[in-house]
């Protein structure tokens, strides 16, 4: 029987690499060697996310003909070059937070963009044309939580032996607590296939303790222009609100590590601290625990537009102080 050849695409670090002339009897290990030649990521550091054999992760000895990879198949690679790992392990001289000029607050500019007719028209078009595949039924009388993935729930740039090691600490605890009062939507500026793979990798897709309502990908986003930001793609919550009228600015909150992603809905967005360098920070990052508390605190607020999410930590402190004061008064009365 003639040995046929095929070519595939490897997606890694924002780029695509074509691997040509793979034969039926090429093994996964040999494929990894070819990928190493193109990307510089050593075979032992490669995590090939969607390479499956009979529904399971393909082993190194498996051959290409058993993997059902059609020509042009896009393989998703996770891993880092040795020089990048060495740089990541070096603590920076200045540990102060880097300020991204694109995320500096410009309230007047946000309001102008939010109400621009040209962008509202784009949102209306998305409402009419974008198809949402519901993964789980939405519930009555629940608020809505919209979550980014990269650097919000997952460190997608660092190296690890498994994807779970790059998951933000307390992710499942956070989603379990949030689900009590909020329907949860995942919105990432990537393809739907990539979103689905990441959610499976993190154990979110079939978790018994909470349900994700649906995923949104980059096709639901729109492009806007501002003098300060330039031309950028953003996540307008109006796309969701147009399809699900039960949700609005009154009961929706979005977490994203990039503020400009919610420039169309500035009062509905909360900029989460980015989760990077997982190997250095996984033991001390408690952002999701704190934000779970905040979601609990505001769950009974009738109109989220009355809140300033930029000061969410202060709001929590006031609530905690109020509870402590109440307990102190009760203790004094009982003395």
Structural write-up:
With 335 residues, the chain is α/β, with parallel strands linked by helices. It has helices at residues 28-39, 82-88, 107-114, 117-129, 171-179, 192-201, 238-243, 278-281, 287-298, 312-334; strands spanning 5-12, 15-23, 47-48, 52-53, 56-57, 74-78, 143-147, 182-187, 212-216, 222-226, 230-234, 252-256, 269-271. The termini are far apart. The protein folds into two domains: 5-81, Ubiquitin-like (UB roll) (Roll); 101-319, HAD superfamily/HAD-like (Rossmann fold). The protein has a five-stranded parallel sheet with strand order 9-8-7-12-13, covered by helices on one side. A four-stranded mixed sheet has the order 2-1-6-3, with helices on one face. A two-stranded antiparallel sheet has the order 4-5.
Question: Strand sequence of the main sheet, in spatial order?
Answer: 9-8-7-12-13
Q: Tell me the number of structural domains.
A: 2
Strand % is 15-25%
CATH names the topology of the largest domain as Rossmann fold
Contiguous low-pLDDT stretches (5 residues minimum) are 88-102, 323-329
Instruction: Provide the CATH top-level class of the largest domain.
Output: Alpha Beta
Overview features:
about 325 residues; alpha/beta; Ubiquitin-like (UB roll); Rossmann fold; 2 domains; 5-stranded parallel β-sheet; 4-stranded mixed β-sheet; 10 helices; about 30% helix
